[in-house]
Design brief:
232 residues; mainly alpha; Four Helix Bundle (Hemerythrin (Met), subunit A); 8 helices; globular; binds fe (ii) ion
């Protein structure tokens, strides 16, 4: 079993555990044939999932920065920004910039959208660098002015990135997928997997997922059920 298929196997086992509830159910329900492969655009969209969860951490951190009595531990934001830098900017956006955008532009498609997306990647990197600078030092984010400035940057980042990722999911990635036939698209998916392993290590996605879960937990936004509106 290669690394990519072992990763998929791991993920399907996690899903089955979630549905079945016990390890024995999961084993019994494991299909005999190999699970369906994660394709290239599904991979990118799943990465958006990690990024969106980081945006949730940013939302909560910005909210806390806005209330002087709330704890806003600088190291939590530093870790979240480093995750965004490593996974979002250094890996996901890099894949878009090297594998996705140039192919669309070459095919004469989505040129204006690609230009905006590139400018937003650059703007996001500037904000991330600035937020990381704000979290360094012993008294980081304890004074009203830096708290307000960082809250503003967090809001600018999330306000930009949600529509950015949504436009990629709904317009850019479907256009990108249409450039390929089945065989080419499958090969591209394998290439994306290799790139992921090269840039992030063998468990890049799983490690990023664990890290964002820890960050959610650190700020108390990890319980999905708490986002369901009460009927009362
Ligand atoms: Fe992007
Ligand atoms: Fe993206």
């Amino acid at each position: 079993m290669n690394e990519a298929s072992s990763r998929r196997g791991f993920l399907s086992a996690v899903v089955l555990l979630g549905v079945g509830g016990t390890a024995s159910n999961a084993v019994a329900a494991t299909p005999k044939s190999k699970p369906a492969e994660v394709n290239a655009t599904e991979d990118l969209m799943r990465e958006h999932g990690i990024i969106r969860r980081t945006l949730l951490v940013y939302d909560e951190f910005a909210r806390r920065l806005g209330s002087p009595e709330e704890k806003a531990p600088a190291e939590v934001l530093a870790q979240a920004a480093r995750l965004m830098q490593r996974f979002g900017e250094g890996y996901h956006e890099k894949t878009e910039e090297t594998e996705v955008f140039p192919r669309l532009v070459k095919a004469g498609q989505q040129k204006e959208l690609v230009q905006v997306l590139l400018e937003q990647h650059a703007a996001g990197r500037r904000l991330t660098a600035s937020m990381l600078a704000a979290t360094s030092g012993r008294d980081a984010l304890t004074q009203p002015q830096p708290r307000a400035a960082t809250a503003r940057q967090l809001t600018q980042f999330t306000r930009m990135y949600r529509p950015h990722a949504a436009r990629e999911d709904t317009v850019l990635f479907p256009a990108f997928r249409n450039l390929f036939d089945e065989k080419q698209f499958k090969e591209l998916g394998e290439r994306f997997e290799e790139q992921e392993h090269r840039l992030l290590g063998n468990d890049g996605f799983e490690n990023a997922l664990k890290e964002v879960e820890q960050l959610e937990r650190a700020l108390g936004v990890h319980d999905l059920a708490r986002f369901t509106p009460s009927e009362k």
